[in-house]
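User: quick one, fold this
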Amino acid sequence: MGSLVKNHLAEHQCKSPSQIYHLTVMMCYDKKLEASRDDFYDDLYRTRDVDCVVTSLEVEQMLEQRNLVLSQCESVPLDRLPGVESSFHAVGGGAGGYLENILSFAAKELFQTEIGPIEYKVIRNQDFREVTIIVNGEPKLHFAAAYGFRNIQNIVQKMKRGKCPYDFVEIMACPSACLNGGGQIRPPDPSVAKIWLQNVQQLFDSLDCQKLENVQWVQQLYDAWIGPQDDDRKRLQLLHTQYHSLENKSNALNIKW
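Assistant:
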């Protein structure tokens, strides 16, 4: 999203990326650290892909400081980025859909198999699930989703023993994944936290859900931005990143958001 705003939007508006201020509202405090990584800083224009990150909880706190109630504020239609024609969420739910989309792509590319709705097998709890793709009677792809540190620790221990059977593991630190992120608005009574989470999940599920490859304007946006010839240099620069270990920098948490 940062590249889309700072590169595509800037080009469309005939502006330098440094002339656009990009603020995001996130459910996770770690997104602040992610935005501060050197990987997402443009040395040429001296600007970050995301200039400011605030959490849902911080938005609530800012509203309270101004004695504002969000439901009583006048609503306005949302602006759309150039080329974005509709709002939807990708198949995969509140974790972002990486597992489902990678599984679908891998099955199609490696085994010429189209998969339908994914049926998970719950292993230990709802936050530790796995799915296996069977091709011609043989298991070909074995994916898992592990949310929460207890389940992550289980995966790590399997890897250390050389007994991790999965081809791909989607890992999220928060139980129930991003919809239950640490930056989400907190209920006044902890006893209703599960009910709040269920309501958030229901609201999320009520949104239009589509496979990315079935959304025509997504491909059109990609062609207009990256180019129909699939410019490898531009694609790698704008859409790919490599995560690596970071040194403990004392200033990483000192950024004023």
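User: anything notable?
Assistant: The mean pLDDT is 88.
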